Amino acid sequence: MLEVRDLSVRIGTPLGDLSLVERTDFILEAGRTLGIVGESGSGKSMLALAIMGLLPPSARTTGSIKLQGQELLSLTERELCRIRGNQIGMIFQEPMTALNPAMSIGDQIAEGLMWHEGLGRRAARQRALDLLQRVGISDARRRLDAFPHQLSGGQRQRVGIAIALACRPRLLIADEPTTALDVTVQAQILDLLAELVAEMGMGLILISHDLGVIAETADDTLVMYAGMPVEMGSSEELFSKPMHPYTRGLFEAMPGRQGPLAGKGARLQTIPGVVPEPGRRPPGCRFAGRCPYEIAACNAAVPEWSRLGQSQPARCIRLEDLP
Amino acid sequence: MILLLLRRFASLIVTLLLASLAIFVVLEVLPGDPAAIMLGTEAREDTLAALRQQMGLDRPAYERYLDWLGGMLTGDLGLSMTYRVSVSELVADRLAVTIPLAVMAILISTALAVPLGLIAAANHEKVADRGVMLFAQIGVAIPNFWFGLLLILFFSSYLGWFSAGGFPGWAANPALALKALLLPAIALALPQAAILARVTRSSVLEILGEDFVRTARAKGLTRRVTLHRHVLRNALIPVVTVMGMQFSFLVAGAILVENVFTLPGLGRLLFQAMSQRDLVVIKDVVLLFAALVILVNFLVDLAYAWLDPRLRQRT
Question: Among the CATH numbers 1.10.3720.10, 3.30.470.30, 3.40.50.2300, 1.10.357.10, which is that of B87-313?
Answer without folding.
Answer: 1.10.3720.10
